[in-house]
Specification:
This protein has 120 residues and is mostly helical. It contains 4 helices and no strands.
Length: 120
């Protein structure tokens, strides 16, 4: 298999795959953090309304929002979406580095490619 075929078929495909996975997990993490923030802002708003209009349903709904926010936060932490996103981004960067190394070897920069290969 030639270098260009290997780069096109294997490396570029895997880079795109890892970048898509990284974006997916990053979106999940950001979505959960927005939901947690919304729940806790809702609790603050309900507590302020409760000071003005004391109704027991406001306190119960604030408790439900606190529990929902904590559940969402722990769900995100237990599934480790942030580190999965970073891990896939790191793998995509490594493959990009490998692609550049192959291209440097092919184009005749053998000294440069050798120095890069030592640090890989």
């Amino acid at each position: 298999m030639e270098t260009q075929d290997y780069i096109q078929n294997r490396i570029n495909t895997n880079i795109r795959h890892y970048e898509e996975l990284s974006k997916k997990y990053h979106r999940c993490h950001v979505g959960f953090m927005i939901a947690v923030f919304s729940c806790f802002i809702g609790v603050v708003i309900l507590d302020v309304i409760y000071l003005i209009l004391p109704v027991i349903w406001l306190i119960l709904s604030a408790c439900v929002l606190v529990l929902a926010g904590l559940f969402l936060l722990f769900f995100d932490v237990l599934n480790n979406y942030a580190s999965k996103s970073l891990e896939y981004k790191y793998k995509a960067n490594l493959l990009s580095y490998e692609k550049n190394l192959y291209q440097a070897k092919e184009s005749g920069f053998k000294g440069f490619a050798f120095r890069c290969e030592r640090f890989m």
